[in-house]
Design a protein that fits this description.
Blueprint: H1 29-32, E1 42-45, E2 48-54, H2 61-68, E3 74-79, H3 92-110, E4 114-119, E5 123-124, E6 127-128, E7 134-136, E8 142-145, H4 164-168, H5 173-176, H6 183-187
């Protein structure tokens, strides 16, 4: 579900490449889409610094941090996520929505930025979509959120100056980041546990 063409995609596609009969629905993004090569650029527009990401990108702290290191003040993201996990249906929509909120709120807070997360609601191919569009302020607080899985319009006044305090204090990257300890993030993909 979701995705973009390879020349514009920047997302980390979830799912799998081949049909899996054990799943009630398929996430074949790895079959149909290739990861993009643009990174996560930001742009000066509408009086601020704006970045964007797609769907699964919202779950990775690196997505927000790369934009945060460019001074992002507003992250816009769209996602198309089912309400039920096809590999873990007992998880339920409430936990799916909890994890969705958690990632967007953490990304906003840890980079002192606004996040505007726009979700697909309703039903697609017989499966409910998670919906839950939200606007999160630089303190990680949800200031506006859709209440149902139907089409809704939400809005909030996103004062970009609200990002300044966090960027100059606790998330002043120039003063507080210790990149000498973060090499593993860019040099390793899978888990390598410590030797016994």
């Amino acid at each position: 579900m979701g995705g973009s063409s390879a020349n514009t995609a920047r997302f980390t596609s979830p799912g799998h490449a081949e049909y899996d009969p054990a799943r009630t629905f398929q996430h074949l993004e790895k079959r149909y889409f290739e990861p993009g090569d643009l990174g996560f650029p930001v742009w000066r527009t509408m009086g601020g610094i704006v970045g964007m990401c797609i769907c699964n990108d919202r779950r990775w702290p690196e997505t927000y941090r790369v934009m945060g290191l460019q001074g992002v003040e507003l992250v816009v993201l769209g996602y198309n996520t089912p309400s039920t996990n096809s590999q873990r249906p007992e998880e339920g929509p409430q936990k799916r929505q909890f994890h969705n909120r958690l990632t967007v709120q953490a990304g906003a807070y840890q980079n002192s930025t606004w996040s505007v997360a726009v979700a697909k609601g309703g039903t697609e191919d017989g499966h409910h979509m998670i919906a839950g569009s939200m606007i999160v302020n630089p303190d990680g607080e949800i200031v506006s959120e859709a209440k149902t899985e139907d089409d809704e319009l939400i809005f909030a006044d996103c004062d970009l100056d609200a990002t300044i305090f966090g960027k100059q204090t606790i998330f002043d990257f120039a003063r507080h980041r210790r990149i000498e300890h973060y090499g593993r993030i860019t040099s390793q993909t899978g888990i390598i546990p410590p030797v016994q």
